[in-house]
Specification:
about 250 residues, mainly alpha, globular
Length: about 250
């Protein structure tokens, strides 16, 4: 137990710093750690959602204090996201999540390439809530519960691509993610029971400790740099899904 806790805490710190700066990759990093420790996939996904309820809460509050949250955008994401997570948690108990990952993969690779290769001209950034944000929140919440991740990858890349300031997107998405993860966690508790306790506590401890610094990174990082790093992170997630599908079949 001590080894699991300390290892999970270290990964939780690293994952939260990356996630706080880019708005994504916490779940991917954390799930990979738990699977490496021998935790079954269903419990690994449940553990990540339990931990994200706390880590995203701490990160979201830090972003709120740093002025990185748009309230209108938050409500446009969180209510549909919670509904989507509820629907997704029901589906995941009856359908394999592999199909959802394969559906998400082309989108992630395409969006990553779009963000990375688009012209470097100065983009007009804004703090308005784009159209169809509610539909985005619904789809992202559903995908996150079904596939064990995807909320941040879908919401951050889409909103950044639509010109919303990256730091405001990251802060708002993190605060909304706290609520979405809490809803998913309740459903996972009903489906799979208690998660791997030491790993969850380690992820929570590391994430909470790193949350204030991750919010500061998001505030200080230049918008174009955040966009490029987000694009690389999305590409990595998409390519990882392809590699995983190829080597496991």
């Amino acid at each position: 137990m001590p080894t699991d806790f300390l290892t999970s805490a270290a990964i939780g710190i690293l994952a939260q710093l990356v996630d706080g700066a880019l708005g994504m990759a916490y779940g991917v990093t954390s799930a990979a750690l738990l699977l490496g420790l021998g935790v079954p996939p269903a419990l690994a996904s449940a553990s990540v959602h339990y931990a994200e309820t706390f880590t995203c809460g701490a990160s979201g509050i830090s972003h709120l204090a740093a002025g990185n949250v748009l309230r209108k955008l938050f409500w446009s994401l969180v209510i549909p996201g919670a509904i989507g997570a509820t629907l997704g948690a029901y589906v995941v108990s009856h359908v394999s999540p592999n199909w959802m990952k394969m559906v998400l993969t082309p989108y992630l690779i395409g969006m990553g390439l779009f963000l990375l290769l688009r012209p470097a001209r100065r983009q007009r950034l804004h703090d308005e809530t784009p159209r169809m944000t509610r539909r985005l929140g619904l789809a992202a919440g559903f995908a996150d519960a079904v596939a064990g991740g995807g909320w941040s990858a879908l919401t951050v890349t889409t909103l950044v691509a639509r010109g919303v300031r990256p730091r405001m997107v990251i802060g708002t998405v993190h605060l909304a993610k706290c609520v979405v993860s809490a809803v998913a966690s309740i459903s996972f508790f009903i489906q799979v029971g208690l998660p791997h306790g030491a790993s969850v506590l380690g992820l929570i401890a590391g994430g909470v400790v790193a949350a204030p610094l991750s919010a500061l990174l998001a505030r200080k990082m230049p918008p174009r740099a955040a966009t490029i790093l987000a694009a690389l992170a999305v590409l990595a997630i998409g390519l990882n899904n392809v590699a995983h599908a190829f080597f496991t079949h």
